[in-house]
Amino acid sequence: MAEENFNQLTPAQTELLALLAEECGEVVQIVGKILRHGLKSHHPKDEDETTNAELLAKEIGDLLIAADAVVAAQMGVTRDNITKAEERKVRSIQQYLHHATIRQTWNR
Ligand SMILES: [Mg+2]
């Protein structure tokens, strides 16, 4: 009998969660670069001179795809629950921000 992981995740679920974690890490990494070097900065060896802002957009896109894949895999993470969490966050976070104003600018 094949041994199973205690978490009972399927290989596909494990893979999607790994992808989600990886993309979260890539967003964190580029945010760190922006905080150190700025939005318009780029890697000195990047011949295309892709800016950190462009890289952040790419990584956020990658993250959203990974999140959509988790929803599509029917793992108990639903679009409806994500929407409710977004609405709660928009209502609750503003009081803790000192400079920024939160607005939802897209409907997914
Ligand atoms: Mg990525």
Textual characterization of the structure:
The chain is mainly α. It has a domain at 12-77. 58% of the residues lie in helices and 0% in strands. The chain has helices at residues 11-37, 52-72, 79-93. The termini are far apart. The model has no long low-confidence stretch (mean pLDDT 94).
Helix content estimate: 55-70%
Shape descriptor reads flat
Unreliable parts: none
Helix/strand structural class: mainly alpha
Radius of gyration: 18 Å
What kind of sheet is the major sheet?
none
The end-to-end distance, rounded to whole angstroms, is 43 Å
Oligomeric organization of the protein chains? single chain
| Share in β-strands | under 5%
**H/E series, N to C?**
HHH
Query: Which ligands appear in the coordinates?
Result: magnesium ion
The mean pLDDT is 94
What is the number of E strands? 0
Number of helices: 3
Summary tags:
mainly alpha, 58% helix, 108 residues, binds magnesium ion
